[in-house]
Design a protein that fits this description.
The longest helix is centred in the middle third of the chain and has 19 residues, at 64-82. This protein has a single domain (6-178), classed as Jann2411-like domain (Jann2411-like fold). It contains 6 helices and 6 strands, in the order αββαααββαββα. By secondary structure, it is mainly alpha-helical. It is globular, with a radius of gyration of 17 Å.
Length: 179
């Protein structure tokens, strides 16, 4: 498997979101217009993660152990979003204890495992990097979305996961509220 980066980690961390966090995503397992979690079961996790373009999800559904690790990864990132560095560090350390790595011939870090275990292992280095980055992850300013993003804008004032989707929705809502 290729090296996974912060964008792949953000996708996993955004697996719990609001009804407007589904722009171009499968709605399998989504029964209402409420907040929902795509990591509640293995089938929903596979469907959600397989639809992403940031990475190639492993074949089949994740086993329960890896589903728990995916949730722990998500919770660690969400702790950073809330500014709870202690909770982030506790979850990060728990994830690090179970991971096993080797140095690949090209000089990158590789997992000693395959499949979903490898996928989870390869999300831990971006999690560690995210904790030491100057720009922390943020939640979308659209409360009905809940998608996360890392603000890489020049001025550091980004508010939306996607300006064309959530940014536009929120501008239209403000306009309608005024008129």
């Amino acid at each position: 498997m290729t090296v996974l980066g912060i964008d792949a980690l953000i996708v996993v961390a955004s697996s719990a979101h609001g009804p407007e966090g589904h722009l171009g995503l499968p709605r399998g397992g989504v029964r209402s217009n409420d907040e929902h979690d795509h990591l509640t079961d293995a089938r929903a996790a596979r469907e959600f993660l397989a639809a992403r373009h940031e990475f190639a999800a492993p074949a089949g559904a994740p086993p329960m152990t890896e589903l728990r690790r995916l949730r722990l990864l998500r919770d660690a990132v969400r702790s950073l979003v809330r500014g709870d560095v202690q909770s982030y560090a506790r979850r990060r350390d728990a994830l690090l204890r179970g991971a096993r790595y080797r140095l690949a011939p090209d000089g990158t870090l590789a997992s000693d495992h395959e499949g979903w275990t490898e996928f989870c292992d390869l999300l831990i280095p971006p999690l560690v990097a995210l904790g030491s980055e100057k720009r922390r992850p943020h939640a979308c300013g659209n409360r009905r979305c809940g998608w996360l993003f890392v603000d890489r804008s020049a001025n550091g004032l980004r508010r939306w996961c996607d300006a064309k989707a959530c940014g536009n929705r929120m501008k239209v809502r403000r306009y309608r509220a005024r008129h």
